[in-house]
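hi support,

uploading two proteins for the ticket. first:
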Amino acid sequence: MPYIKATQTAAKPMAYSETDTKLNASAGLASVGVAALLVALKLWALWQTGALSVAASLADSAVDLLISAGGLAAILYAAKPADDDHAFGHSSAEDLAALGQSLVILASATLIGYSAIHRLMAPEPHPLSAQGAGIVVMGISALLTGGLIWWQSRVARATGNKVVAADRLHYLGDLLPTLGAIGALWVSRAFGWGQIDSMVALIAAALMIAGALRIGSGAWNALMDRAAPNEVIDGIAKIAREHPGVRGFHDLKTRTAGAQIFVNLHIELDGDQTLEQAHDIGAALKRKILIAYPQTDVIIHKDVWRG
């Protein structure tokens, strides 16, 4: 079908407002600050206790620090508007950061898992010390993590930033190793069961590996221009199908980059209407798609309907 020369494009839907950008940056800075403080606290707790479960939690927090720093950089860089060298924006920075972070998580989890298995196979359990101090430090860590999750939840709801939302989910998962370390230290102190420490560390390592594979897979798929989720594609198709004035559509194509979804859509319109009428139909359709899916960048091509 021949094209009407005009196309309908979205006006940078991912460009956050100044307020939203500040909120997203505040969540990223809070994440970096809390992670750095947790690393320092857990380093001291590990030195005092020698507990492998604390080491697992420490490694998790060290990875968190890297992830949070990368996430903050990605938030700031991805928020930059499109320019001559990056016509589709900078949102792929989020995927590059996530892929690198997943590799770091895998390496850390593998080391913790190996150490846990080595201790479990040892003839004598590894002795722990200063469990009370370790419990206090890990309790403070849990409170700090909970406060960070609360703030990230508020920011994610206010701005819809998926990097902040993903970081929030990551820290929710971090609560388990922290609480597990508290439990291991308490059991060791109360009953002398030192092996529980290695068991908790092994569980934490398994969870870290599962999370790394999930994050890495999502980042890899986005870098390889994988299409948007099926429910998003079906939703856009439904909007186009039911939009007044649209006689049909074809070549609906999508790809993802970071938190952004790029949409390319051909719609079929009556050939006897004016260019202004065709433009208005396309503009109204674009607005509907952006309202339903705010994280999209939409290009609509208009074809002549040959019914």
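and the second one:
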Amino acid sequence: MTQQVQLNPKALDNKRLQIDNKNQTQSQQMSGASVQSSIVNTINTIIGAGMLVLPYAFRTDGIFIGSFILIFAALTSGFGMYLQGVSSKFLPESTASFFTVCMITYPHLSVLFDLSIALQCFGVGISYVVLTGDLMPLVFPFGDDWSDASVRNFYILTSCFLTVPLCYLRRLDSLKYTSVLCLIAIAYLVLLVYWFFFVGLATDFTNIPVEKHGDVSIWKPESVKSIFKTLGIIVLAYTCPNQFSIVGELERPTLGRIYKIVFISMSITTLLFWTVALFGYLTFGNYISGNILLVFDDSLGVRLGRGLLVLMVLLSYPLMFHPARISFNNIYHWFQISYFSQNGGNGYNKLNGQESQPLIGTNGSATHLEPEQANVTVIPDSSAQVVEEETVPLPQTRFIILSTIMLISSYLIAYYLKSFEFILSIVGATGGVMISFVLPGCYGFKLIATQDESMQAELIKHSPQEANNFIFRNKTVKFASLFLAIWGIFTMIVCLWSTISE
């Protein structure tokens, strides 16, 4: 029977002293991100185009139930983000990710991580193409000789001229500044929703045509099925797949500072989401049928907002496409190793004669990898959990074939699926739920209050200053993590059923 490792106070003090001296030396060379900048980055990674469908969620749920679900989604998503920070303490600083944590907890389910990221990024990319087809005809409309469907399809196809060349690049460093454009566009759209509501409130909503102002429901939802359908939309709105990176860049990433970042960023985001959902719904009522930008009357200010959003999502499409391609390639590699390799499941150490290299350098720093090469294969060692790196091969031929298949599939789906909120529901119920609930919940249940000696040793080794934190011994948090994972699986099943069965 496995016995729990006793945390020796003297050993911990010595380890803390070593870490303090090391941190003092490193801080002279490089400082990490502040709490304030980390809060801004977290908010930036959460808020996106999915916010524009939240008023529709209030229409289907009613204000009371919609507000409750929004707050509950914020609490559960925030808990999942905090569990990511807790999980990072079992790995060397700045090396934690969904994949690396999965390797020390459930290594045989690593393909599940890649599948979640693939569904999330690929699905969001499709929604961006659909959104382009919805908005561009309102920004630059054609004459009466063109039908609405023809104009929509024309803009979807012409968007290829911008997105396709960027998707065939292996590096996208030049697009890293799109986050600035994203912030400008989102801020403008939020102010647009606020403007229409407060002007309408001051004029008894005479600024809204009568035919566009429907009834408002405070308590009664449309149906139970509609609640679960829009739940996926709300979950996706809160998805923050980059939280591990934010923790990794944080200066002095203590659990207290991580909690502060999660609490403040989720509070601001929830307030923003709730006001946009409420003000947008009160402005148009049950007339809203999806994206609120499609409801606004045509004007120069509204066209500017739509144009900014289209430019933002088209430039963001390649940024979603690249991690999706990496994950699909990892899945292909996993099947190749597991079912077609002569070595079977033991073929991880070598592939095509290539020796695997440590992901973590001897000095404890992360090995530098190029974006398309930063795919790790991790194998569990019999004596301890060892994280090793192997460049998952992506030869040029496979790169072109995989990219072409993904692009054709993405545009075909966007061409035939005309509902932006439908795609968000599917993506939120699959990749969004996995990233927000299931994976963090599984990590927390495995690592918190663990009886595994090797895991306790890794915690002491990599986080000696916080190894005695009550969170790592709290069984209530452990089983709350299990509830989060179960809640995620339940949400996934019900949301998919509610969305697909329509």
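thanks. also noticed: Residues 34-328+418-500 form a domain with the Amino acid/polyamine transporter I fold (CATH 1.20.1740).
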